[in-house]
Amino acid sequence: MGTVDIIPDIHGQIAKLRGALDALGWRRNAAGWIHPDPERTIVFLGDFIDRGPENRAVIHLVRDLIDSGKARAIMGNHELNALHFHTAHPETGQPLRAHSEKNLRQHASFLAEFPVGAGETHEALAWMHSLPLFLEAEGFRAVHACWVAPSIDRVRALTKDGVLSEEQLIRAADPADELFHLAEEITKGPEHQLPDGFAFRDKDGTHRDHVRLQWWNAGARTWRDISISVPVPDDLPDAPLPGTLMAQTYPVHERLVFFGHYWLSGDPVLQAPNALCLDYSAGKDGPLVTYELHPGETLLSPDRVWLHAIPY
After folding, report:
1. pLDDT tens-digit profile of 134-148?
2. Which of 210, 216, 265, 287 has the most crowded Cβ, counting Cβ within 10 A?
3. Going by C-beta distance under 8 Å and a sequence separation of 6 or more, which residues neighbour residue 176?
4. Rounded to an integer, what distance in angstroms lies between the CA atom of residue 262 and that of residue 260?
5. How far apart are CA 250 and CA 241, in angstroms?
6. What pTM was computed for the model?
């Protein structure tokens, strides 16, 4: 394995992607994409679409890199949502993801370039459908939102190389189906119900009795340690986590794992010695942040994290 550039959520921001590729030394010539290091490759962490205005250009560039043999990619929750939005249930004829006001708003920038039912839309969706839910390579792993071994192993057993079949894609939209919960956890991250009597209000004031979990935090011992996006941590119990939940965190002895999804802000930090989130809100006002993974690397280094300037 040569050096690998890990690139997270782009969300239709083609200028940020082009700027990052240029800074990392990637160039396009008549034969395809090249780099001064001929062994260097790229891994994309999903969420190519929505939010930003240039979905088509991002998809085209990413596919061009893959077709040049220089990149691999996995599916993000926005690709999964898009597939469900544009796929009708074979029995009811209704879209697997409702065309509600909220979902239309979230998907608006993609729909502006890829209308429902258009031939180009079908072709782009077919490519999204070909993307696996995770990637495991020599020395590292890549997933959009969450790597919990039992869930990954189950998807590995049910699918061909982590890619959902047409029938499995339909099942993954049904909350009563096992595949729904597996795909939700892998592409959107795990949640867990709080102990009886505990709840909190999120940043929008919504009352919640489930919390999102820092699955990468193997050192978490209490609910306050492991929870994400809780405005007032004192709303949570300062009580020991159940052993079953602690057992689902990512062990520090496992190989490196890279993920996106979480819309972080501020200066990039390592989530653990072997776990790194690279999503720093490039889909909105943040920079595209990438990691330069060197062969044989077994611990993450802050010196390999690249924060790319926002183009104006």
Report:
1. 999 989 999 999 999
2. 216
3. none
4. 6
5. 15
6. 0.95
**Considering only CA atoms, which of 169, 60, 188, 52 is closest in space to residue 110?**
52
Dist. CA 158–CA 145, nearest whole Å? 19
Q: Are 280 and 287 in contact (CB under 8 A)?
A: yes
Q: How far apart are CA 47 and CA 235, in angstroms?
A: 32
The pLDDT of residue 247 is: 84
Closest CA to 192 of 175, 211, 218, 216: 211
**33, 27 in Cβ contact below 8 A?**
yes
Given strand 41-44, what is the order of strands in its sheet? 71-73, 41-44, 4-7, 289-293, 305-307
CA of residue 298 relative to chain centroid, distance: 22
Rounded-to-5 percentages of helix, strand, coil across the chain:
30, 20, 50
- 246-294: pLDDT as tens digits: 888 999 999 999 999 999 999 999 999 999 999 999 999 999 999 999 9
Among residues 66, 59, 61, which one has the least CA distance to residue 11? 59
- Residue 106, classified by CB atoms within 10 Å of its CB into exposed (0-12), middle (13-18) or buried (19+), is middle
Counting Cα atoms < 13 Å in the Cβ hemisphere of 59 gives 22
CA distance linking residue 129 with residue 132, whole number of Å:
8
Q: Write out pLDDT tens, residues 63-108.
A: 999 999 999 999 999 999 999 999 999 999 999 999 999 999 999 9
